[in-house]
Design a protein that fits this description.
Helix 2 links the parallel strand 2 and strand 3. This protein is an alpha/beta fold. The chain is globular, with a radius of gyration of 18 Å. The N and C termini lie far apart (58 Å). The strands form 2 sheets. A 5-stranded mixed sheet has the order 1-2-3-5-4. 46% of the residues lie in helices and 12% in strands.
Length: 229
């Protein structure tokens, strides 16, 4: 009974959010009033999504702002209120975003401390990042989390989410030098994964379909990056 109740609530969350607006392809729900600045945020999301070869501008997008931490814990499907956003790639393809200052285009961190790489990761980054996970699910199947490596899934979402705001040469030099900023295990940042995807797409000229059809082994990819160019 509890499992059925959980599935019912999480798959049909709209009644749990008291505020809603529509803007272009976006349907936005929130547990707090949605300021008018949401339009500018969503315009920036659209700009970032133009860097994706997968995104279909005719496909509606449903976004839920979870300003109360229990909502992120529940609807994010991971029983974790610390993450910036989540996408349900399995069933609904809805996007859930943690507590945010929409007017300032930024997410609040769980600890209240400054966000790492904040200049490259405004609120619009998080929304575009999660939408990209759903776009990948539409193209390559709902079981992508089981079939593809983390560096590819998160790297491509970061690639699109940052909308071109990424200096490949600078990040490659940091990676080759062993900088912690380019080590996911040390920082939890996706810059390392982004670098690997950017190398294949922008430097090697692979299409995204080619990358997903035959993703290189991570050890091989890291060796190529350290030897670049």
């Amino acid at each position: 009974v509890l499992a059925h109740a959980y599935l019912l609530v999480t798959f049909f969350p709209k009644t749990m959010f008291g505020y809603r607006i529509s803007y272009e392809i976006y349907q936005v729900w929130s547990d707090q009033r949605i300021p008018e600045e949401i339009a500018a945020v969503l315009d920036d999301v659209t700009r970032r999504l133009r860097t994706s070869s997968l995104h279909d501008r005719d496909t509606p997008v449903e976004i839920f702002f979870c300003n109360e931490s229990w909502r992120m814990w529940l609807f994010g499907r991971a029983f974790n209120a610390q993450m910036g956003g989540a996408a349900d790639v399995w069933v609904t393809r809805q996007v859930f975003i943690r507590a945010s200052d929409i007017a300032a285009n930024r997410v609040h961190t769980p600890t209240g401390r400054p966000l790492a790489d904040a200049a490259q990761r405004p609120l619009s980054y998080y929304i575009a990042h999660e939408i990209t996970h759903n776009d990948v699910s539409r193209r390559f199947g709902r079981t992508v989390l089981l079939r593809y490596p983390q560096w590819l899934l998160e790297g491509y979402a970061d690639y699109v989410g940052k909308g071109g705001d990424f200096d490949f040469e600078e990040n490659q030099a940091l990676f080759a030098a062993g900088a912690p900023e380019l080590n996911f295990r040390k920082t939890g940042l996706y810059r390392e994964f982004h670098l690997k995807v950017a190398y294949l797409l922008d430097k090697k000229g692979w299409t995204l379909d080619q990358v997903f059809a035959n993703p290189p082994g991570e050890d091989e990819l890291e060796a190529r990056l350290r030897a670049y160019p």
